[in-house]
Amino acid sequence: MSENQEEFDALRKAAYSFVNEHGKEAVALRAVCEDFMGRWRDARGSAATSAKNDRALIDDVVRWTMNRYNRPRYKPKRSREERAKMFLLTPAAYQISGEDFGRASIRNTARITGQSVSTVARHLSRQGIAPRREAKIRKLSKTGQELTRILDETFDRRAYGIIQMDRLGAALWDGAEARQVPATTRTSRRKRLKTMLAEISAANLSYSIVVVDDICGIHRGRRFPSLSEAATWIAEEKRLDRYAPIRYPSPQTETTTEYFWADPVVIDAMAVIDMAVTGRFHPSNKLDAIFRFERILFDITPVLPWLERAYHSYAGDDMAENLSDLASMITDPDTRKAVRRLGTIMRELKGFTGSFPLCFDAFQTVDFVLGIMDKTAEASPESFAKLAYIRDWFEESGAYYDDVQNELAQMLEKEKSGEWQAPDPETLSRYLPVHSTNKTTTTS
After folding, report:
1. Which of 109, 218, 346, 365 could bridge 352 with an S-S bond, Cβ 3.0-4.6 Å?
2. Cα→Cα distances 261→136, 269, 302, 398, 426, Å
3. How many domains does one find in the chain?
4. Domain check: are 352 and 407 in the same one?
5. How sure is the predictor about 178, in pLDDT bands with cuts at 50, 70 and 90?
6. Region labeled Disordered — which residues (predicted)?
């Protein structure tokens, strides 16, 4: 190190700047340091330093920079919260693009959101929306489309595995019901499957498929290096008996009857009421009901570790109080604010409900803390009507929550069995929010 601290700091910063821009290249770095020292000497006169000291200083800085210095970590331009928000809003923007531009497309969505086309495509794909891929699938035969759905359900975006052709054929044509088929039927199925698998592999749907005898090897998201390597891999997987379990796509059937107690908003409201009365907010997935009413963060992942720390804290059993105490240790401002807000919600839910509350009081507490009625009136008037009906039912019954807790948990089963009758549409219409009723009247 040079005795001249100013000289050393100047050369060090010049070396760091080069590495940040061009990476670690020893020869180029030394040339930059030598050029810098030459200009430094010319600016301050030859007497300022000696050539021997220059070489020693350059050697030290180059060695230190190559061995110990690393580029600063890349800091994204947007925060995690902003990225999560854009991820969740992209499907809605995709629908809006169809209204604004006449056709919903990735490029039009990018024009609305200001994101790149590749970013929009990635966001939509992760949420099951891939318009270009769907267009390619629709070009296949109906049976080929069904086969593609089975493969999509069985293999993740980067998964791979082997499947017996007979089992795949049974999944395609017989569904979950296994049955014996004649040998001639199995043979014809294999021929049809080979043809369809070849079409799927060539349709650019991110599948690479190779059929060897009665086994098909499938790579999703990548290609086989060669046919010989694919055959070797399939033979090894077959020897180890590593067959991929076939998963069936969820049936896309429209239910004509929607149960009263199966409404997602009603389920969430009842879950929050139960948490408020019992004071039990763990495991963390129970809090999803709160997060859907109060979006404290678009991406709650950073909050989850603090929830676990609060639950397992030795400070006491009050999870809300533990959360508030831990919030001061969080460096990220968005996460700190979210944890404090969640702690406040949990504390108010427990505190305002009190001991042995009436069902009506518990409902009113949850509405006061989270504003569920106002939020539901705007987002889902039908769900608002159901909640308002439950609220009036609680008020008329005058029951204590502890006395009917188990009964409330079984209301959906009772409705399905006919033991409890849901109110008819005319009755529920009287509970619709005012602005929704006026809108309906105006439209008609």
Report:
1. 365
2. 39, 11, 32, 20, 18
3. 4
4. yes
5. low
6. 415-444
C-alpha 42/C-alpha 36 separation (Å) is 10
pLDDT of residue 78: 73
Which residue type occupies 40?
W
Residues 109 and 183 in one domain: no
Q: How far is CA 31 from the centre of its chain?
A: 48
Cα angle 205-210-212, degrees, rounded to a multiple of 5:
155
Bridge partners for 283 per DSSP: none
pTM flag (> 0.85):
no
- Compute CA 297 distance to the chain's CA centroid, rounded to the nearest angstrom: 13
Containing structural domain, residue 390: 260-443
Q: Looking at residue 297, what DSSP letter applies?
A: -
- Closest to 146 in 3D by CA, of 200, 94, 87: 200
247: nearest Cα among 188, 168, 190: 168
**Within 13 Å and on the Cβ side, how many CA atoms surround 136?**
14
| Range of lowest pLDDT (82-86, 291-295, 385-389) | 82-86
Strand pairing report for 207-212 and 160-164: unpaired
| Mean pLDDT computed over every residue of the chain | 85
Whole-angstrom distance, CA of residue 346 vs CA of residue 61:
55
Are the beta carbons of 65 and 15 closer than 8 angstroms? yes
Confidence of residue 257 (pLDDT cuts 50, 70, 90): very low
If asked whether residues 381 and 294 sit together in one domain, one would say yes
